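To the wet lab folks,

You asked to see what we're planning to order before we commit. Fair enough. Below is the target structure as tokens, and below that is the sequence we designed to fit it. If anything looks off to you, flag it before the synthesis order goes out.
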């Protein structure tokens, strides 16, 4: 269960991804901090505008959104 490290490492294994290749978004700060400690690019969701900035900065946006 989140925020235990095993949750995130299992998800990475299932996705065949390295921590630096993954993005994690959650509205629970302890979950975000746990993912970040493993090297996963993480965002604490507070509002849609902040999420959009995070996705753009992470290179995850492939189209221009308002």
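Sequence we intend to order:
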């Amino acid at each position: 269960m989140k925020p235990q490290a095993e949750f995130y490492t299992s998800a990475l294994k299932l996705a065949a991804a390295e921590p630096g290749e993954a993005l994690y978004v959650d509205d629970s700060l302890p979950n975000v901090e746990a993912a970040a400690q493993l090297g996963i690019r993480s965002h604490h969701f507070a509002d849609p505008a902040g999420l959009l900035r995070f996705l753009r900065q992470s290179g995850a946006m492939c189209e221009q959104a308002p």
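Structural context that might help your review: Residues 52 and 65 are 8 Å apart (CA to CA). Residues 5-57 form a domain with the Rossmann fold fold (CATH 3.40.50.1000).

Thanks,
Computational group
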